[in-house]
Amino acid sequence: MYVGIDVGTSVVxxxxxxxxxxxxxxxxxxxxxxxxxxxxxQDMEEVYGAVVDVLGKLTGRVREPVELAxxxxxxxxxxxxxxxxxxxxxxxxxxxxxxxxxxxxWLADGTFETVFRRTGGAMFPGSPGPLLAWLDRYDPKSxxxxxxxxxxKDMVFQRLTGAARATTDVSDASMPFLDPRARSYDNRVxxxxxxxxxxxxxxxxxxxxxxxxxxxxxxxxxxxxxGPYDLPACALGAGVTAPGDGLLIVGTxxxxxxxxxxxxxxxxxxxxxxSTDRPGHRLRAMPAMVGTAALDWxxxxxxxxxxxxxxxxxxxxxxxxxVRVLPYFAPSGERAPFVEPHLRAELSGVSLExxxxxxxxxxxxxxxxxxxxxxxxxGLTGSLAVCGGGTRSSAWMQLLADVLGxxxxxxxxxxxxxxxxxxxxxxxxxxxxxxAWTEPTAIVEPDAGRASSYAKGYEEHLVxxxxxxxxxxx
Length: 474
Known about the structure:
Strand 16 (246-250) and strand 17 form a beta hairpin. This protein is α+β, with helices and mostly antiparallel strands and 474 residues long. Helix 10 (292-302) runs antiparallel to helix 12, helix 12 (356-378) crosses helix 13 (394-404) and helix 12 (356-378) packs across helix 16 (448-472). It has 16 helices and 24 strands.
């Protein structure tokens, strides 16, 4: 069997697949996020312990030889480790907002735009550049004690395999230090962010080979591949590799990805270009800060369960009786398809007659409009696949198809873990039928009448977004 490991922000998962790509079993374990005053951190030991736990349970359930394992996980943030991959301090999450003042300064003085023009990465508060600069200013002892500033999957890989030194791959390194043409670190960007004396902390790049052998969690000696991180892993797992084709991940964050061989560093700085194992092939990524997390907040606030969502969506019409939601709930603002660190969610059209169903539909529609905005900015021209936790709601998938005005190739199951396996088999030279592994579960066609109505709603959404951005900058 083949094992995919996906170290998510709130859940760690391990999935087993047979040679035809059929998902045999999944084990998962939640992990905590610590949120306080805009700081969002994670306990690395808890995260790593969850990985070992789910792997042990998975291999205990499916008693077949493990051919190999692929590892993926959340991107961005800063995970400071010592020489053995053990934590120096708590990990700073990609959701962290503490560096917003530094980002404000770089937005004002042109540093932000200069970095984008060099790398194609539009920094946001939770990306490694701002966080490392914040640590250098306010917690230098942690940086002094660290051997490397890595990403989530890299910490897990080093611990799992006992690698002598932390490494990362070009996908995680894409934000914000990687020169996408040379596929190496851009030292000028390091200098612009005031991090030259911390350059030693950037881990060596495996391009693309970052492999090793497991020493715990999996049978000893199991071949393990590190990366790509979760966004490009999901693209692989959904079969999105042809230029112009796209993927929408409806998960904790809402991520729009479009495969491309182009590199356009003009226009409004936003999103990033994710380098892949294939030189010259990239993903134009617009990862918004909040996806299902916005709906979760509304459900919790209204006392509604996830099981009720489909019925409630059916009980109120498109347009939600005039209720509108701008779904920018993250404490660090928005990062795609624009960067606004101070942007916050807005609800309008609410009255005493507004029902929980109206709020839920308006939130789902707002997320759909945000998705359309991201996909357009990413340059979608081909087919569109959809994956993530949101796909479990058939009503929401229909709503998304209507809002986006295009068919959706719904890919269910552990898509990130599946992509990690496909990357691993490529790196180890193990032939698999990628087409069979990435077949969609269903195709959802848009309703022409609702799609036309939502096209007008989308134009109104763009106006509201522009107005909200203006208020956020005051």
